[in-house]
Amino acid sequence: HHSLLSLGGPADVDAQSISLWMMILVAFTVFTEHGLRSLQVWLGPPHSPGNQMLAKVKDELMLMGILSFMLTMLEQAVDVSHTFKLPFEWAHTLLFLAAMNLVVMALLLLSIVEQL
């Protein structure tokens, strides 16, 4: 059983693969942040309904990310039986889908508000 907490020794690590994934993650983060800033400008003043909704969506997604990370680390630290893990994975997936649904609904509401 491989775990994030036991990554292996230096001989087991491919530095080029790690570097490539780090660059991809940094590029994705920069692209996403730039997109969010552009969306904030497009939505108008900082206290406009659109920007308030965007801030709420960002807060919810950040909370989901933190919870997901904490639960992943807990799962790696504690050996969990399959009968416990399967319902957890279902719940985790449903929470992710609920968060994505929130984003889609917020974007739809933003487009409706902009048309008014």
Q: What does the secondary structure layout of this molecule look like, with pairings?
A:
Elements: H1 15-43, H2 49-77, H3 82-115
Helix pairs in contact: 2-3
Sheet with most strands: none
Summarize the helix and strand pattern as letters.
Answer: HHH
Structural class: mainly alpha
The outline comes out as flat
Structural description of this entry:
The chain is mostly helical and 116 residues long. It is built from 3 helices and no strands. The chain has helices spanning 15-43, 49-77, 82-115. Helix 2 (49-77) packs antiparallel against helix 3 (82-115).
Attribute tags:
79% helix, single chain, 116 residues
Outline of the structure:
The protein is an all-alpha fold and 116 residues long. Helix content is 79%, strand content 0%.
